[in-house]
Amino acid sequence: MKSVLIMVKNLRSGGGTETYVLTLAQTLKKQGYRVGIYTSGGTWLGFFRKKGMRIHIAPSYKNSQKLLEKMLKLYQVVHANDQFSVSLLATLRPLPSQVVVTMHGKYFKPAAIRKSSAIAKAIIAVSPPIYNYAVRCGAKTAKLHLIPNGIAIETFRPQGTKSLRKKYKFPAGAIVIGYVGRFTSEKLPLGQRISRILRSFKAGRPNTRVMIAGRLSKKYVKKTGGYIVAGLISNMSDFYRSCDVVVGTGRVALEAIACGKPVLAVGCSGFVGRVTVKNFNYAWRRNFGDHQNRRVKWTDRQLINDLNKIMQLKKNGKTQTHQVRNLMIRQFSSRSMTKKIARLYQKKQFNSGINNILCYV
Q1: Beta bridge partners of 5
Q2: 356: pLDDT confidence band, cut at 50, 70 and 90?
Q3: For the chain, which terminal residue's Cβ has fewer other Cβ atoms within 10 angstroms, N or C?
Q4: What single DSSP character describes residue 333?
């Protein structure tokens, strides 16, 4: 049986890397892989176990060489998802022969990228800016592969519950704007800014409701009537379906599109606006505002104007949203992502990932 050990130091609730790991693990299992998760634990540990994941806990992650060496004897491939895991693997002697690394963001330091290039047979970048960043930091292009985030379309789909509308007692005809962000470290200023803009936008619109979700949102955003701060949501597909429009970036944008919602993309690196068929490739090449080669300034008015445009669209807007969803499914389903990654696992020699790049840009 094919097997892979997926490494991620922390299992924080609702994180993009953690969601990637879970999606990949679930899809690999459906394809007949035996999958293990090597981690120090975290707030999402119980959630992973409920999903049927085999977990190997290393409480002292940085110094868990002996445990990791024991685990590696049980798996054919090891797939690291953060620089802590790369650093740990680099201390082993002999080095594992089948290592794959996924770079999820620019928080991978240049030294970690060069280390990945030395020990890994393949390095996956989840967006073109991350690919370019890896090259600038010294990664070997022959090992780099561009494979974007995959979304579980069986979970994120238009059909299903909208229980949050009932939970928060929204009127039947209310227009609900949802924002999902991470209110931590470098992403906190963006979350606070968007929350402030949406609060201002709602003022004077009695039929409009706003829902804010994401890690630590309750700590930094004040809840008022019609302005809901939901905090960390375990059932994100229900959240998206409960909204009429979603503001977000990265994986949030893709998940909301999969649920059939119009998306206004804005992230730490810049403003994309409403995602359409026309600008879809432009949006994804910037990971929907989350990854760009350089940050681009944007104004509050840009976000407000695009929100107004989305809310004014009716039948034609639904058609456009459906077209964007079809485009997203063709390129970003978890099956497609996992199929590409599984090919990397199975190759004995890892060639250039340039063909993967040409598929998307």
Answers
A1: 36, 78
A2: very low
A3: N
A4: B
* Percent of the chain whose pLDDT exceeds 90: 81
Residue 286: which of 148, 140, 141, 193 has the closest Cα? 148
DSSP track, 51-85: TT-EEEE-SSGGG-HHHHHHHHTT-SEEEE-SHHH
Q: Residue type at 102? A: T
Contacts (Cβ under 8 Å, ≥6 apart) of 27: 150, 152, 334, 335, 337, 338
Best CA proximity match to 154, nearest among 1, 38, 27, 46? 27
With vertex at residue 100, the alpha carbon angle to CA 95 and CA 101, rounded to the nearest 5 degrees, is: 105
Find residue 245's DSSP bridge partners.
177
In whole angstroms, what is the distance from residue 199 CA to residue 211 CA? 10
| 3-state SS record for 296-315 | CCCCHHHHHHHHHHHHHCCH
**Strand pairing partners for 228?**
211
Phi, psi of 86 (to 5 degrees): -60, -45
Q: How many CA atoms lie within 13 A of 121 on its CB side?
A: 19
| d(C-alpha 275, C-alpha 253), whole Å | 9
Count CA atoms closer than 13 A to 4's CA, side-chain side.
27
Residues paired with 212 in a beta bridge: 179, 229
Q: Of residues 350 and 42, which shows the higher confidence score?
A: 42
User: Which residue's entry shows tokens 């955003």?
Assistant: 221
